[in-house]
Design brief:
heterodimer, A: alpha/beta, FAD/NAD(P)-binding domain, D-Amino Acid Oxidase, Chain A, domain 2, 2 domains, eight-stranded mixed sheet, about 25% strand, globular, B: alpha+beta, Folate-binding fold, two-stranded antiparallel sheet, 2 helices, 6 strands, about 15% helix, binds flavin-adenine dinucleotide, binds zinc ion, SoxD_sf (chain B), Heterotetrameric sarcosine oxidase delta subunit (chain B)
Chain lengths: ~425, ~110
């Protein structure tokens, strides 16, 4: 892999940019690998990357039924934060945030991480109490967040209406280290680094069956034929239930549509991320100038990557009250992704009933921010066969034992 | 836009009139049940990509709960039926089989 640098740009500028090489190879599958990851979204690619980087396991294939990063990783609204309530969540999301901070250097790929600060508005007294509690919890966890009053909110977000008739802004939970990154670049950066380590990213290759013998996976059936493996990682978000079914176990996961939309580009007007959980809406401004907007999930099981229009309408109605200036904006594009929701709204990074098969799923509406931390923890689990401290509490058996990591009460919208 | 016919009042209700209530025909467990049984009842879900049976409430209509058979991969609706059933009625199963010949049935 030729490294990207200022010198490379200068060199290429002098020769009409003829010398750039493809960011990753497009190999045919080998008969067998030491490890196979199903799903080339951010979490699958990061898992592969840290398997190579931290454990030296590079005879790895990442199988993707569509194109890499084309699932939720390429459809999300890119909010990054680590101000969760429960300790296991704070640990893994904060690990992820720390890795994001120098990911561009580590991958030699600009992921455009932008720690511009993030506000979670409190618009009811219940929410004020909830966020004060989160601030205290975060301080105990060593995650720096603070409670700020309405005047400070207005100072950080001049376009906000702090005394709306239904939901006045009573304050906010503020994480200065939070922000955004470029979603595609995260997938592409990991993919390029994986390919450079000799790993095979095989796109247009759907896994259709999991073969096992005596409780151990031997390989997977795919649209490009059978591929053998010593270890299997399932990292397929919305399709986790389907692939788990192929492997013969059931998950506490349901797949729902989550939508987002962007406006026409306008001049810079908001340089922080604002989430408003009571009214189920959030907004940030992309570098191109588009207002990036999202809300809550649709209510029913759905695999079509399309949501219902009235959900978008509800999101915008709520945000127009909080940001009156967006009422005249034209919306450019709207889309949906299929998110994998668990019963406690926390992810699963776990061993499975099959000895050498591992699963990473349940990131639901909020897993983009977790990609580096999740890949780090999943790689440890796959390499050692046992979870490390970051993953241990996210096992899939916690639902049987009642050991929930309950984030659904911590935030109505868990992005 | 999803449209379901309420089997009680006969109204063809569009989505904003309805509230979704999750998987239908779950077997309920009470005090004295095992951890596995509680997990199955409260958390384990079929989540099929294809034919699915669900609970819905005609929230802004007659207010009653009913059940619907739907395809989660295409959003096609096969039919709705009374909530006072423990499995999908024969006529709904027939309709599904006519449209989805390789459907394996409820697991
Ligand atoms: C609209 C929207 C907004 C969001 N906003 C945010 C946000 O602001 N902040 C945040 O942190 N998170 C957000 N999220 C959540 C975040 O996008 C996801 O949690 C995260 O991207 C999941 O990554 P992943 O790698 O697990 O899944 P994906 O990126 O979906 O990757 C899974 C891959 O598996 C592949 N696959 C599936 N089945 C098979 C098979 N049988 N064989 C081979 N490949 C298969 C799929 O094609 C897919 O590419 C949002 C999600 C959506 C939909
Ligand atoms: Zn009715």
């Amino acid at each position: 892999m030729k490294r990207y640098s200022v010198f490379a740009i200068a060199r290429e500028a002098l020769r009409y940019h003829q010398g750039w090489e493809k960011a990753w190879r497009a190999p045919a599958p080998k008969p067998a690998y030491d490890a196979i990851i199903i799903g080339a979204g951010g979490h699958g690619l990061a898992t592969a990357y840290y398997l190579g980087k931290n454990y030296g396991i590079t005879n790895v294939a990442i199988l993707e039924k569509g194109w890499l990063g084309g699932g939720n990783t390429g459809r999300n609204t890119t909010i990054i934060r680590s101000n969760y309530l429960q300790d296991p969540s704070a640990a893994i999301y904060n690990k992820a945030l720390s890795l994001y901070e120098d990911l561009s250097q580590d991958l030699n790929y600009n992921v455009m991480f932008s720690p511009r600060g993030l506000l979670m508005l409190a618009q009811t007294h219940h929410e004020v109490r909830g966020y004060l509690r989160t601030v205290h919890a975060n301080n105990l966890q060593g995650v720096k967040t603070e409670w700020i009053g309405p005047e400070k909110v207005k100072e950080l977000v001049p376009i906000i209406n702090i005394d709306g008739p239904r939901y006045p802004v009573l304050g906010a939970l503020y994480q200065a280290r939070g922000g955004t990154a470029r979603h595609d670049a995260v997938a592409w950066g990991y993919a390029r680094a994986c390919s450079a380590m000799g790993m095979d990213i095989i796109q247009q290759c759907e896994v259709t069956g999991v073969r096992s013998e005596n409780g151990q996976v031997t390989g997977v059936e795919t649209t490009k034929g059978f591929i053998g493996t010593r270890k299997l990682g399932i990292v397929v978000a919305g399709h986790s239930g389907q692939v788990a079914d192929m492997a013969g176990f059931r998950l506490p996961v349901e797949s729902l549509a989550l939508q987002a939309l962007v406006s026409e580009p306008i001049k810079p007007c908001m340089d922080v991320v604002v989430m408003a959980n009571t009214v189920h809406g959030y907004m940030s401004q992309s570098d191109k100038g588009e207002m990036v907007i999202g809300g809550g999930t649709d209510g029913f099981n759905n695999f079509t990557q399309r949501g219902s229009f009235h959900h978008i309408e509800e999101t915008l109605r709520a945000l127009v009250e909080t940001f009156p200036m967006i009422s005249r904006l034209k919306m450019l594009r709207q889309w949906g992704g299929i998110v994998d929701m668990t019963g406690d709204r926390s992810p699963i990074i776990s061993k499975t009933p099959l000895g050498n098969c591992f699963i990473n799923c349940g990131w639901g509406t909020g897993g983009f921010k977790a990609i580096p931390g999740s890949g780090w923890a999943m790689a440890e689990l796959m390499a050692k066969g046992e979870p490390g401290p970051l993953a241990a509490e996210f096992n899939m058996w916690r639902f049987r034992e009642g050991q929930f990591i309950d984030e659904s009460v911590a935030a109505g919208v868990a992005h | 836009m999803l449209i379901l016919e309420c089997p009680y009042c006969g109204v063809k209700a569009e989505e904003t009139e309805l509230s979704p209530g999750g998987e239908a025909h779950l077997k309920r467990f009470g005090p004295g049940s095992t951890g596995e049984e509680f997990e199955a009842y409260m958390f384990a879900r079929k989540n099929p990509k294809g034919v699915h049976f669900e609970r819905w409430r005609h929230a802004y209509g007659c207010g009653k709960w009913f059940l619907a058979a739907r395809c989660t991969a295409t959003l096609e609706v096969f039919g709705t039926y009374s909530a006072q059933t423990t499995e999908p009625p024969a006529e709904i199963v027939e309709k599904i089989k006519a449209k989805r010949p390789d459907w394996k049935g409820t697991k």
